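Treating backbone geometry as a discrete language has practical consequences that deserve illustration. Part of our work consisted of pairing the sequence of a single chain with a tokenised description of its backbone. What the numbers capture is local backbone geometry rather than side-chain detail. For completeness, the protein is quoted in full, as a sequence line and a line of structure tokens:
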Amino acid sequence: MPMNPLNPNSGRILIRSVNWLGDAIMTLPALALIRQTLPSSHISLLVPQKLTDLWLDQPYADTILSFEPKEGLFTSARFIGLAKAHTALVLPNSPRSALELWLAHIPYRFGYHAKWRCAFLSEAIPYPQDHTPMGKRSIRQIRELAENQKEPQKFSYSAQAHHIYHYVHLAKHFLEYLGTKPQLPIDLTPLLKISTRKQNEVKEFFGIQSSSADSPLLGVNVGAEYGPAKRWPLENFAITMATLAKEENVRWMLFGGPSDRAQAQELRERCCTIYPETFIYQLTGRTTLNELALLANLCELFLTNDTGPMHVAAAAQTTVLTPFLSTSPELTCPGSPLNDKLHANRHILLKTSRTPCSPCFLKECPIDFRCAREFPPELVISAIRKHLGRP
């Protein structure tokens, strides 16, 4: 039976956010549903320190609380207790994320029914019947498929396989347990609010000239924190960027985190070897997440691997071009889910068709990374030209 642990018109709610940037963007429709259904409740969003800046200017919570994952369990629990929340929703599936709320003595705690944590939840919400877990291929399977060239056993995805549905389902049942009747949004496209004032300030700070027909401005992100199996080869990025700089006068904004600086420097050198006048705004390791969204919004297109900045750029309402190598757009494509017939996905998603072992969902390719060869630079250059309206 539904319970009503708080008055929907008052009360304090804590939402424990996910830990990864891409996942955080995919929770936005769920957070919007909670905010819309409980407009008068005070919502605190508990986020990892590295993601704090993402939530600046966003309307999904009243208070942002940040934590360092390396903090001890009891230290985290005491910090969570400062929110004085009466009800909590935990978005990650880890045992620790539920245990921290239990130790913080929050009376009502909701989350998915996952291993080793149900005892710490007031209500363990079951996964939807058509829940589709990510299925990794074994190294043995990959080698057999590659050597024998057999027809691969394709992963079967439900109509609601995308991770956005995973979080919306959880939020919907959480709200129903609180005694409310949430109205699911028609559009499940994640969106970030863009401040024009701050955008102009960031443009001026980095000395960026706006995009124009004569000199289009494009974004590029060559890293992928999960592992190299997600990364389109660096040489392909260099050929693409230099060719479009030479033939279409494209300017590039190069994004990435501090750990991507060496790779960014190598990419710049490769581009300049191919075409010395390649124009690159070197922003790797220099922007906050909030600035990443503001600058991505200025781009005509954002070329990227399947990684967190891909989702940020899409939520900033910029068209994204992504080669999907070891992963699948059915599960984690940017923007609206692929099966959304009312809001067709606006992004350019390149999915392997001839590589029998893709998607494998592994961090590193155990063979010859043949899925990357399905997307030569010429294919990507052609897609970008078409998007820009160039012959």
